[in-house]
Amino acid sequence: MTDLVRQAQQGDHAAFQSLYREHVGRVYALCLRLTADAREAEELTQDAFVRAWERLGSFRGESAFASWLYRLTVNVVFMSRRTTRRRAQRVFATEDPGALERPAEGREANPGLALDLERAVAALPPGAREIFVLYDVQGYGHAEIAELTGIAVGTSKAQLFRARRLLREMLES
Amino acid sequence: MTDHDTPPEFRELRERAARLPKSIEPPRDLWPGIETRIAGKRPGKGERGRGWVPWVLIPLAAAAVLGALLLSRRGALERSGAWEVLRVAGLPVVGSAPLGASGAIRVGEWLETDDSSRAVILVGDIGHVEVKPDTRIRLVRALRSDHRLALERGEIYAKVDAPPRLFFVDTPAGTAVDLGCAYTLAVDSSGNGTIHVTGGYVEFDWSGRRSIVPLGFRADTRRAFGPGTPYAEDAPQGLRQALAAFDFANGGAAAVRRALAAARSEDAVSLWHLLERVDPALRRDVYDRLAALVPPPTGVTREGALRLDRTMLQIYWNTIRRVAWRKAILQGIRDIDPRTGTAR
Lengths: 173, 344
What we know:
The complex is a heterodimer.
Chain A: H1 3-9, H2 13-35, H3 38-55, H4 65-82, H5 84-89, H6 111-122, H7 126-137, H8 142-149, H9 153-171
Helix pairs in contact in A: 1-2, 2-3, 2-4, 2-7, 3-4, 6-9, 7-9, 8-9
Chain B: H1 8-18, H2 31-38, H3 54-79, E1 82-89, E2 93-94, E3 97-98, E4 102-106, E5 110-112, E6 118-123, E7 127-131, E8 136-143, E9 146-160, E10 167-171, E11 174-187, E12 193-206, E13 209-214, E14 217-222, E15 226-227, E16 231-232, H4 237-248, H5 252-262, H6 268-277, H7 280-293, H8 302-306, H9 310-329
Parallel strand pairs in B: 9-10
Antiparallel strand pairs in B: 1-4, 1-6, 2-3, 2-5, 5-8, 6-7, 7-9, 8-9, 9-11, 10-11, 11-12, 12-13, 12-14, 14-15, 14-16
Helix pairs in contact in B: 4-5, 5-7, 6-7
């Protein structure tokens, strides 16, 4: 466990802010790809860090802080997804196709390729997009995804196949 | 979750996904909002932590109970043939009663909005429908295999994430069949309307007449005529007028010839629909123009297409819809050749 995490656990806001600065890019990227909605991703990023603060005491260093935080973020996104009101008010990918076009630090060397894939991922149906992001981008396994999202392992596999098939069709050149 | 688990045809995609940037900076600093929300609070201990203060849990427990009640209410609604409805603005009416912040619409009931009210209907657990002002809509069926509304007049925006053919909207001019999509559907007081698809595909059926409307396309609908030929959002005015004349005003061969003259490669979806709708004598002209705009793929012959061979038409459609889809999805990102769908 790092000193920053220990200090934050003692209630040190400055230390927690440093943790925020260190991890906000990855948390936001995860939220943005799962929701395909920039505004919702901002809200969920804030929710994730607030939740992290509220649960910081339960982090015992058994895994890396980053892993703990990203897993908590996925939980926050899926809890939010289950909230009917937010779901009803959600702005969908097709209405916000520019959400992923924003220039950002850390883009890969060929930005055209990344943008193609980002745009295509954002255009996937939500269920397929979420599984693709968790499996192929974040590197979770089907069992972990099932645990995190509450769906069956078989459903996770089926959605991944659906997502990959749709993406391949979109990205053929 | 190694590459051994990934079928060879998806490995390149997986590698590209793995190369995506792991970090994207948000467009604004989100810390001030977080700082405000955690101000004055100590870091929590979680479920297993020390310093467990029972009174802190009271609001959490209340929220959990409320959440469970809402979920069980929603499940009960679905089992009893009803869907949840949320008021967005004004005073929508369900049945004969004004809608509160939320409520339910039961099979057979109407939801009506006036010029200043709006509502959202949650379509079971597969999507939602935004009901715009001045709209009258009825819940027809609430089955897991048949989620069905009837739009008498007004406008809705529907977004569904489910396998195809589970969500339907009946209108006076036919039925919109969800094929995994998002769309806006408008019906005027005489029963005529327009469907505009913003994601996926919608099939619109009336009395054996069928239009498949992809992302980025529209189709006009007319009572007693059904769906017209779909056309691209940016279709030339001349094409739209010619299609309207052919579909709804007995424009005949002259209208078809005007449509063919005005069509671009981007309008192949329209011409593909015309293949089945025109007289056999005119079909050759339609096919030849279509083949010039989007070359037919392997497996499609002129003779087969002219005799409306189902398999060949489907193969041709798969090519046309894929080209149209890539053009729409990659708009502004890649310059897509509308003849082939490949990047130029």
